[in-house]
Amino acid sequence: MGYYKVPRSVLFLCLFISFCLPYQFxxxxxxxxxxVQLLIDASEGSGRRIPDTLFGIFFEEINxxxxxxxxxxxxxxxxxxxxxxxxxxxxxPWSIIGDESSLIVSxxxxxxxxxxxxxxxxxxxxxxxxxxxxxxxxxxLYNPGFWGMGHGFRKDLVxxxxxxxxxxxxxxxxxxxxxxxxxxxxxxLAEDLDALPIWEALDGLEFARxxxxxxYDAIRRTYPDIKMITNCDGSSRPLDHxxxxxxxxxxxxxxxxxxxxxxxxxxxxxxxxxxxLIGLEKNSDIVQMASYxxxxxxxxxxxxxxxxxxxxxxxxxxxxxxxxxxxxAESSGATLLNAALKTNSSSLVASAITWKNSEGQSYxxxxxxxxxxxxxxxxxxxSGLDPNSVELSGSTKTILTSANxxxxxxxxxxxxxxxxxxxxESADKEMAVQVLPHSFxxxxxxxxxxxxxxxxxxxxxxxSI
Length: 465
Ligand SMILES: *[C@@H]1O[C@H](CO)[C@@H](O)[C@H](O)[C@H]1NC(C)=O
Ligand SMILES: *[C@@H]1O[C@H](CO)[C@@H](O)[C@H](O)[C@H]1NC(C)=O
What we know:
This protein has helices at residues 8-20, 66-70, 155-163, 179-193, 201-207, 212-222, 267-282, 320-326, and strands spanning 36-41, 48-49, 55-58, 95-97, 103-108, 119-124, 140-142, 168-171, 196-199, 229-230, 245-246, 250-255, 287-292, 296-298, 309-311, 316-318, 335-342, 348-356, 362-370, 376-383, 390-401, 420-423, 430-435, 439-447, 452-456, 459-463. It is an alpha/beta fold. It holds the Pfam family Alpha-L-AF_C.
């Protein structure tokens, strides 16, 4: 982040001015007894497809997100102080490689590090020649690692990322870590998450302005399969530089509510972001990609607030902003339905999509943000569906809220503000629901599958599943 030309605060401001104005939340309060209507058209072929890569993640080396975070704590008990700073020290889970008669391992307090006095001493008694030859596998110490060694990521943190199903992983790749290393790690991470890796060369290109061709050639040579996309418009006149594609659609590369209202991750900030993301869904003919930033903060090196995922060496939690992204995990590649909210209140924003799960079950997901401080009686009407086409059993309601809008999660209460899913007993084409104050709610209606005509022997039967 240190190399941005535009200070991040300005960037955030621009994004919010351009995208949030249509959805400003004024302090208009809805009368609790005056129902608000949400009309949704779910008829076949009426919606618009949302880009497959609308919501992704932006990984950068800030707040010790990578080094000291996602991929640093691989070595368990790396300071040999699991049992405290006393000696002889507890060196578990380190174990000796080779023959114990070839190696003596002990601990003393000779370390040059003030905060980590315990040092490990290894005396190798064998040699490559002479009377005491070392075992063929060599001698040394082995550490099985904290989280399994695979690609070497902390499993708990990668799981947090997997759960929001990011469709792309953006990484600038030019910051504190040396290049090839960072690119390798980012690539693995994208592979582990099944996300499309997007290496944002443009930051780098501007950073290396004047060297564009050298830069282009170097990437082409090293990573011939990477598509290089320029954000210059090549439609009216030819580009004056080589590139595989041009695209001037909007990429909201970093969004987040920051400042006093956001604290270190408040519900208030998360609700505003939910409204903003609903706006992006609705404008996804123009906005093609969006990613929250920063993704991680290691509490031992907090350089930027707020962040999506907070961790230290042993614990982690998602901020409300992280949980908001769960509600959009199915949006990329889904179909946006026409949804009209009949209200004079500007505290409410809603959208509706249809999406299919991996088993091919089809859902209508209705999301609504209530930014106001009173609850709202909402009448939802879904048109364009056959009668009895909503399954009661699989339909759910998911709510993100808390008693106070400034509430935050913490290591002590990691899921104080987290989505709570319950069965939606009133699931139907016409529903009367109550939307809690200061909340983000999604209603997932499971659609009955279309009728199938199945031929069995000589008789045909119609099975309506
Ligand atoms: C992580 O933070 C919590 C809360 O401050 C603390 O209790 C715990 O000891 C920390 N863990 C490590 C390994 O620093
Ligand atoms: C919105 O306000 C106008 C004017 O006050 C009123 O006539 C109308 O009924 C209101 N609409 C709704 C949906 O509340």
